[in-house]
TrEMBL record:
Stored InterPro entries: Lys/N-term_MeTrsfase_sf (IPR051419), Methyltranfer_dom (IPR025714), SAM-dependent_MTases_sf (IPR029063)
Cellular component terms per the entry's GO annotation: cytoplasm
Lineage of source species: Eukaryota, Metazoa, Chordata, Craniata, Vertebrata
Any Pfam family the entry gives: Methyltransf_31
Annotated stretches, region: Disordered: 429-450
Methyltransferase domain mapped to chain residues: 50-165
Official protein name in the record: eEF1A lysine and N-terminal methyltransferase
Basic residues composition-biased segments: 434-444
Family to which the UniProt record says this protein belongs: Belongs to the methyltransferase superfamily.
Organism: Eudyptes sclateri (Erect-crested penguin)
GO terms assigned for molecular function: methyltransferase activity
Amino acid sequence: MELLPRSPGEFGSARYWDRFFRQRGQRPFEWYGAFPELCPVLQKYVRPRDKVLVVGCGNSELSEQMYDVGMCEDIVNIDISDAVIHQMQERSGSKRPKMSYLLMDMLQMDFPDAHFQVVLDKGTLDAILTDEEEATLAKVDKMFAEISRVLQVGGRYFCVSLAQTHVLKKAVKYFSQEGWVVRVHQVAGSGDKQQFVLPVFVYVMTKFRKIPGSAPQILEICPEEQDKPMRVESVERLVAAVKDRQHYALLCSQLSKTPCGEQVSLDLCDKESGRPRYTLHVVDSPSVKPSRDNHFAIFIIPQGRETEWLFGTEEGRRQLATSAGFGRLVTVALHREQHYEGMAGIQAELSGKVMELAPPGLPARQQVPFLSVGGDIGVRTVRHRDTSPLSGEYVVEDVKGDGTCYFRRLVFLCNRNVVQSEARLLARTPLTGQKKRRKDKKKPNPAEPPAAIDKSYLCCEHHKAMVAGLCLLGGPDPVPALLAVLVVGLGGGSLPLFVHDYFSQARVAVVEIDPSMLEVATRWFGFSQGDRMRVHISDGLDYVAKLAAEGTILQSIPAQYDAIMFDVDSKDLTVGMSCPPPAFVEKPFLQKVKTILKPEGVFVLNLVCRDAQLKESVLATLREVFPLLYARCIEGEVNEILFCQPNPKGCQDPAELGARARALEGALRQPGRPWDSSYVLADMLQAVKIL
């Protein structure tokens, strides 16, 4: 039996609907959900004394159920199908004396002006607006004009719809331009009984007298029936908000049917501000054998630790899911702009939403565990927030790591999952002979991080490797007497600070393009300038080019630096290389770098490149300029540290490299000078390979 139309145009044909309802018989045909799903929205607005018009009623039970529950009784139903009107008149009969069914075309209604307080349309607009042809749009305009005519000022037009983009835009633009208030409700799903994968929406459009001039549009969305409305500034933003909810519904439907081959990521936003509150990753582990208790779990990532390899990379999350032993693990990252009321508060907030991401085969009433590291949500304190003209918006924040350690981080919010700079904070120690606190004095807060920077600790593994590369300088002494170092890229200043403090004769020049970073490093990361440490606010490209040009003008070879270190990020996120910017690894510029490097010196480059072809091109260019090239990959990260030497006769024996590294470390580890015991220079160079 063919009930669907041969072409979309038949949806507007009385002949088609007559045939449809004769073939379907007495069985109700419900477009987009039944009364229980729509009732919570309707009862917010429809009053018992309202006079209600239902356009395109079909043989839906909606009117009958509204009547039977006492929502309202004065209901007029119209349709263009004679067959369905007779069918419904027989079905209601004397049971609902105040409700009527009339054969009438809603494009040309017989009712007087302002006759109804409510007009209800369940799927009718969707059936008519099947395309955006001129004739179709003209028909819709006529429909809207008639609805507007028969509706009183203050009355409401309810349109139940799947909210296809062209349908939603047409309705919202038409009525908002007429000065009406437009509010879009998302109808709560009905579980397994829901007929459609896509969510159902109700446009509630309230009629106001049109004010001459440009009155502001009032557009709102209610994600679920119990939520208060959220104001949006434009039709485009309203359409985008609806699309987000449609995509989420499709995603949930897909995840409920089959395991996901690739990790799925989505943001859950704050209802008030619309800003992301949680970032979820759905990770399936096919290797985990399912049992009753290991289908599904939620893992709350402690605040500030979302950038760690285990939580911030696809491979890390896969390893986490496998080690946790669950078939599906949803990791939840918490956003710095939000406030959270502990693990219990997060669990209460997320429990309903994450169940929509449950895997197929989850037993009914299954308890889903919430997991975390140490059972808490971590500590994150934003110390400073500002915007730089060059680097954009950034934050300085203190976060709690493993155990009792705290770390201070600089994060550029344009790339919020990457820690730009990091330093460990020193634990507070009581002063010698300090008197006991009075009982009425405020006790120290264990969650309050310390403020002093531990300058002996290099948090970043790539910084440790870059410092270890200084043993390639050779010479009779492990630590050259008058070491001249150029560092391009300041960040928080931990790399140049370490070189300055541990190489006591080193003279360090730092080039930083962004003056805001010098202020951040000085105020928040313990950085300071002096006789042996100077910062030059300049573009690194210009600074190096100027030094090379000065040597050329003097017709001499400027051998200024023993070591040149590049640790500079790229602001262009569209390139597959985030460090350094492409211009820093072009051959003409690299030749200038070589020019200002001593013959026995070393050029150290932090390379972060996800594009394999681009990376190979960079390595080829480096080989053309520097005869000797070493590489050190940083485990669990994209970073690769490249050590480049102009002298082809440099050290190429791994055993000799290890001996040099041990000798350098021995020279740096002086009595009374703190040293991180986990930092072994020889280990840093153990995995170095010659390219």
